[in-house]
Amino acid sequence: EFRVKVVSTGAVVPVMADQSVAEALKQSGIELPVSCEQGICGTCVTRILEGVPDHRDFFLTDTEHAAGNIFTPCCSRAKTQLLVLDL
Ligand code: FES
User: Fewer CB in 10 Å around end: N or C, the chain?
Assistant: First the structure.
C-alpha cells in the first residue's frame, strides 16, 4: 500500500494492494482518462512531481522509465510511500 497526492487539491489517496492508482483516484472522485488499463495505450500517462514510480507498463520507453517523471496509473505502482501527481 502507498499513497498518491493530487497536487491541485492536496488530496491524499491511499492505494490498496488490490487496486490501481486510477481506481483509487476514481473512488475519491478523481477520474483519469483510461482505456486499455494494461499499460499498453498510454492514455493514462500522468506526470509525477515527487516520489519514485514502479513501472508496470509496456508503453513508456526505457529512458522514460529511468527518468521516472511520468507513469501509467492504470497499472504502475510506487516504490516510495508517496507519489505526488501533477493532477
Ligand atoms: Fe492504457 Fe493506462 S490506460 S496505458
Answer: N
Mutation to probe ligand 1, out of 31, 32, 43 (largest number of atoms < 8 A from CB): 43
Ligand 1: distance of its center to the CA of 26 in Å? 15
Q: Per residue in 42-81, pLDDT tens?
A: 999 999 999 999 999 999 999 999 999 999 999 999 999 9
Quote the CA–CA distance of 50 and 79 in Å, as a whole number: 11
Paired sense of beta strands 82-85 and 2-6, if any: parallel
pTM: predicted TM-score of the whole model, two decimal places: 0.96
